[in-house]
Specification:
Structural class: mainly alpha
Number of strands: 0
Radius of gyration: 21 Å
Number of helices: 21
Order of helices and strands: HHHHHHHHHHHHHHHHHHHHH
Helix content: over 70%
Strand content: under 5%
Shape: globular
Length: 411
C-alpha cells in the first residue's frame, strides 16, 4: 500500500470514529465538525487537491436538500405541523388509533419533505400532543422515527441517500416512486403491526384524556400557497425536470409570494446537515481515490450471486450492515459505484434505496432521524440503546424481507 493510500484510509477511519464518538458521547466533535476535519485533512495531507475536493461535492444533492428544507420551513412558519398534530389528537379516539394516524402522517410527510426535517419539526409537537393526552411517550416516538424512515423510501426526495441515488441512477422520479410506494406501504404495515403487538398492554391500559388548550392559529393562506407550490414542484419532478433546480425554484417562488421575513426562513434550514454532507462527499472521494472500494467489490462480487433475485437479497443485507457500520449516505456514495456491474442495475438501485433507508430503524444510531427524535425528546423521556433496538431489530428484519420480496414481485 502506498503512503498516500494509507493516509487516505487513516483519515477516513478517523472521520468515522469521530462521527461515532459524538453519537456515543465519547468525543466532543459533532457530525459537521468531524466531516470538516476530514475534508481539511484530505487536502492538507495531499490525498486530494483543492480542485479535486471542490469537484467531489455533489452540489445537485445539496441544492435539492436546500430547496425542500426551505419549503418545509414555510410550512412550519405557517403553523402547519402544529395544526396537523392537534388535528390528529382531536380525530383519534383511542391510543391505538392515534398510533396509526401518527404512523401514516409521519410517513406521508417524510415522503414529500425529507425525513430528517419532518422529525425535527414534528418531535416537539408529538411530545406536546402525547403529554396533553396523558399517554406513554415511547411507542409514539418510535412510530415517528421509524415511519419517517420507511415513508421516506418511496420518493427520490424523501431522504438524502435517495437524493444521491436519484442523481447517480438517473431513474425517472415517477418510475422510482411507482416501484417503491407499495414497498413502503408494506413496510409501514409491518412496522405498525410490530409496534401494536409490542405495546399492546400499554396501549390498552391507556386512554386519551383531552386537555383544554388555547386554540392554535394556522396561517391558512401560507399553508395553501406552500402546498400549491409543492404540487407544482412535484409536477416538475414527474415531468422529468431537474430535481434540484425544480425544488429550488419552488422555494424561490414561495419566498416571492409569501411576504414573510426571509431571515426567519433561513434560520430554520438545517445548515449543519448541508455542511455535513458537503464534507462527507470529500472524505468519501478521498477514500475512493485509493481504489479500496473497488478492491472490496471485486473480492465480494462473487458472493452476491449471478441472478438478479439472488443479487437483490444479498445486496439488501449487505446494505443494511454497511449502512449501520458506515452510515447510509457514505455507504451509498461508496457502494453506488458498484451497481452498474450487477445483472439488473435499475433493480439494484431500488434495492439499495429501500435497504439503506429501512436499515436506519435497526438502532438509535442507524439514522439522523432517530437521533433527532431521541435528542429532541430527552427532557421528557430517556430512550436507551436497547429500548430502541429491541423494537428496531425485528422491524428492520421484517420490513426488509417484505420490501425486497414485494419489489421482486412487482419488478
Amino acid at each position: 500500500m502506498h503512503q498516500k493510500e494509507f493516509v487516505a484510509i487513516a483519515i477516513f477511519a478517523l472521520t468515522y470514529l469521530l462521527l461515532s464518538g459524538r453519537q456515543l458521547h465519547i468525543l466532543p466533535l459533532n457530525r459537521p465538525a468531524a466531516a470538516f476535519l476530514g475534508t481539511v485533512l484530505m487536502v492538507a495531507c495531499g490525498v486530494l487537491t483543492p480542485e479535486q475536493a471542490y469537484r467531489a461535492v455533489d452540489y445537485d444533492t445539496l441544492v435539492l436538500l436546500l430547496g425542500m428544507s426551505l419549503i418545509s420551513a414555510y410550512l412550519y412558519l405557517a403553523g402547519f405541523f402544529e395544526w396537523t398534530a392537534d388535528r390528529v389528537l382531536r380525530v383519534a379516539k383511542t391510543p391505538q388509533r392515534l398510533l396509526f394516524y401518527l404512523t401514516l402522517t409521519a410517513a406521508v410527510l417524510s415522503a414529500l419533505l425529507v425525513n430528517d426535517t419532518i422529525c425535527l419539526m414534528l418531535t416537539p409537537l408529538v411530545v406536546a400532543v402525547v403529554v396533553r393526552g396523558r399517554l406513554p411517550l415511547l411507542p409514539y416516538l418510535l412510530a415517528l422515527a421509524m415511519s419517517a424512515n420507511i415513508g421516506s423510501a418511496c420518493t427520490l426526495v424523501g431522504n438524502p441517500q435517495n437524493m444521491i441515488i436519484g442523481h447517480l441512477s438517473k431513474i425517472h422520479f415517477a418510475k422510482f416512486s411507482l416501484s417503491l410506494l407499495p414497498v413502503s406501504i408494506a413496510g409501514l404495515a409491518a412496522e405498525f403491526a410490530i409496534l401494536s403487538f409490542a405495546f399492546r398492554k400499554t396501549l390498552r391500559a391507556a386512554s386519551i384524556q383531552t386537555v383544554e388548550a388555547a386554540p392554535r392559529r394556522a396561517d391558512r393562506r401560507l399553508i395553501g400557497l406552500t402546498f400549491a407550490v409543492l404540487m407544482l414542484v412535484f409536477g416538475g419532478f414527474l415531468a422529468g425536470f431537474n430535481l434540484s433546480w425544480t425544488a429550488l425554484a419552488g422555494a424561490a417562488l414561495v419566498m416571492v409570494l409569501a411576504r414573510r421575513d426571509t431571515h426567519e426562513v433561513f434560520k430554520l434550514v438545517d445548515w449543519n446537515l448541508l455542511f455535513f454532507f458537503a464534507g462527507l462527499f470529500v472524505v468519501v472521494e478521498g477514500l475512493a481515490s485509493t481504489g479500496l472500494p473497488d478492491q472490496i467489490y471485486h473480492r465480494l462480487h462473487g458472493l452476491f450471486g449471478s441472478s438478479a433475485a439472488a443479487q437483490a437479497w444479498n445486496l439488501a443485507w449487505f446494505s443494511v450492515a454497511g449502512s449501520n457500520v458506515f452510515s447510509n449516505v457514505p455507504f451509498v456514495l461508496v457502494a453506488g459505484k458498484w451497481i452498474p456491474g450487477f445483472a439488473n442495475p435499475e433493480l439494484m438501485w431500488k434495492v439499495m434505496a429501500l435497504a439503506t433507508t429501512f436499515a436506519g430503524n435497526l438502532t438509535i444510531l442507524g439514522s439522523v432521524a432517530n437521533i433527532i427524535v431521541v435528542e429532541s425528546a430527552r427532557h421528557h423521556i430517556k430512550i436507551g440503546f436497547w429500548d430502541y433496538a429491541k423494537i428496531g431489530i425485528p422491524v428492520t428484519i421484517l420490513t426488509t424481507v417484505i420490501a425486497v420480496a414485494t419489489l421482486l414481485l412487482i419488478g
